[in-house]
Amino acid sequence: MDLTEDVQALGWRGEGGEFDVLPVVIQMPGEAPRWFELPADEVLQVPLSHPDLCWFAGLGLRWHAVPAISDICLEIGGVEYPACPFNGWYVGYEIGARNLTDPDRYDVPPQVATAMGLDTSRDNTLWKDRALIETNRAVLHSFELAGVHIVDHHTVTRQFVTHEERERRRGRTTPADRDWIVPPLSASTTPVFRRAYVNAAPRPNFRRQPIPLP
Q: Is residue 212 part of a domain?
């Protein structure tokens, strides 16, 4: 909400929906920030449905196909490139176990659980867990249905361990932030859960930089 309020203060309005695409905001040194609207037909958004729960599509949830980060700085050989966006593809839990489900984001589990007919009066019914799983199933199903590449947490952690082993055989280490490597969904079922990682910052690298908006 902070970023939305900041760009609204700059004059952007949007359509007032939950999934409006925010503009790109650029600020040059010594100048006020400026925003640039992204054409709606240039941003692919995937409507979310469920392979078994026919009512899920009626929740009106959707998510954009490409995770692009534009507030980071690329540092190569001591030279900083502050306007070098990075993108890849989504791991399902980034959407289904964080963006849509964090209480301070979209917080959809109570809505999903109610539609599933679950008892939400007590935590020990595990309604949060069941709603979280079905939301993640919907994300993976919908992206696959739309032909948009996505990967589940079991596959991606197995791929990372393969990368670790390949690097180890070549005498190299694999520094990593464990908070990013171990998934927030069914963590103990993945091969990275019992591994230790050193959170180093080798170069070249992308790093966070202060958001220039007031």
A: no
SS3 16: coil
Q: How many residues does the chain have?
A: 214
| Count of beta carbons in the 10 Å neighbourhood of residue 89 | 14
Residue pLDDT, tens place only, 21-61: 999 888 888 888 899 998 878 899 999 999 999 999 999 99
CATH of the domain at 48: 3.90.1230.10
- pLDDT per residue over 105-131, tens digit each? 999 999 999 999 999 999 999 999 999
Question: pLDDT tens digit string along 71-109?
Answer: 889 999 889 998 888 899 999 999 999 999 999 999 999
Residue 1 lies in a domain: no
| CA gap 104, 101 in Å, rounded | 8
Structure tokens belonging to residue 109: 């589990």
C-alpha to C-alpha distances, 87 to 34, 56, 119, 187, 195, nearest whole angstrom: 22, 28, 39, 24, 27
Residue 26 falls inside a structural domain = no
Phi, psi of 86 (to 5 degrees): -125, 140
